[in-house]
Design a protein that fits this description.
The chain has about 200 residues and is of the alpha/beta class. The chain contains six helices and seven strands, in the order ααββαββαβααββ. It has one domain: Rossmann fold (3-Layer(aba) Sandwich). The protein binds S-adenosylmethionine (SAM).
Amino acid sequence: MSFYEDRIFPFFMELATRTFRREIADLLQTADGRVLEIGAGTGANLSYYSDRVTEVVAIEPVAAMLEKARTALRHAPHDIPVSLQVADARKLPFADASFDSVVACLVFCTIPDPEQAVAEMYRVLKPGGKLIFYEHVASSRPGVRVWQHRINPVWRKLACGCEINRDTRTLFEQAGFHYRQIKDFEHPKVPSLMAPIIAGVALR
Ligand SMILES: C[S@@+](CC[C@H](N)C(=O)[O-])C[C@H]1O[C@@H](n2cnc3c(N)ncnc32)[C@H](O)[C@@H]1O
C-alpha cells in the first residue's frame, strides 16, 4: 500500500462520506445477532450498532484503516464485543452460515470482484440472515450514466479502486438475495455522479 492509500485517501474518504452517516446509522438499527461488517474502513459505522447485536466482526484489507478503526472504537457508545481483522471480502475466513447479519456500506463500489464477494457474504450468512447495504451505484438516468462511464477510469485511480457505475442492485439479486426493503434514490446532498444510492435489507 502507498502513502496515498494509507494516509491521504482515508482522510478524504471520511470527509466525502460524512453526508451519508445519519442514514447509515438509522439503517444499521436493523442489524442483529452476530454481525459481519465488510470493508469497515476507518470504523465510521462501528458506533452505530444497537443492543440487539451480540458481536461485531469487522474486516478490512487495509491495515492502516483498521488502525484508525481501533481508535474510533474507543469512543463507541456501546460495549458490544467488536473484533477487527485484516481480511478480503472475496475470501472470508469464516464458516458457512455463521452470521445473522452482514453489513456492506459504501464498499461494493470498490471490491475488485464483486461477484466473488457477494457469493462469500451469502455463504457466511445463516438462512434468513440479513444483508444490510448502503451503496452508491450506476444511475438509472442515461444522461448521468454516460458521464459515470466517462469519468470512471479517472475516478477509480483517484479513489483507490472506487467505481461509480456499478449495478449493485442486480448483483445482489443474482447472488440469490431477496429484497425485504430497498430505497433506490438520488441523494440530494451529493454531486449527481455519486448521488444514486441503494439502501436497505436483503434476505438470504
Ligand atoms: C469508501 S470505503 C468505505 C468504508 C466504510 N464501509 C465506510 O462506510 O466508511 C471502501 C472500503 O472498501 C474496502 N475494500 C476494498 N476492497 C475490499 C475487499 N476486497 N474486501 C473488503 N473490503 C474492501 C476499502 O479498503 C475501503 O475501506
